[in-house]
Amino acid sequence: MAELQQLRVQEAVDSMVKSLERENIRKMQVSIPRPRKSTAKVKDRKDEGARPPNGQGLMFRCSASCCEDSQASMQQVHQCIERCHAPLAQAQALVTSELEKFQDRLARCTMHCNDKAKDSIDAGSKELQVKRQLESCVTKCVDDHMHLIPTMTKKMKESLSSIGK
Asked: pTM of whole model > 0.70?
């Protein structure tokens, strides 16, 4: 029974993460601005078709353009590439942090269920009764946390949309 509840949560979280990745994070990779050029010679140069017609891969093109500056030091190129990838790294950190908080809350809830079951066993309750109580408690934890997913998703989408602006 606990495995079924775990699967329910895992499928819902996986679906949420796929949606965030598809609808928000991928778009960030497409719309990250090109780096600021450091030399006047490069500033005057036109954007020689560096952007594909549909805008795909701008984050990677941003990184590639960092390498085009032959006057830049290795450290400057590295910092430029990091700036290109910073919004994506920030987005990934945000999603990871929110998922960890969600997982911690769910774990605390299920630990409470385990503690109640142990207390019931110690008080002399029958094993079958305790097992049913535990399953019911874990199911309630999962149900309660499943209801949090839409709000958590909305919050993350709002936060993701503000990254890099």
From this structure: yes
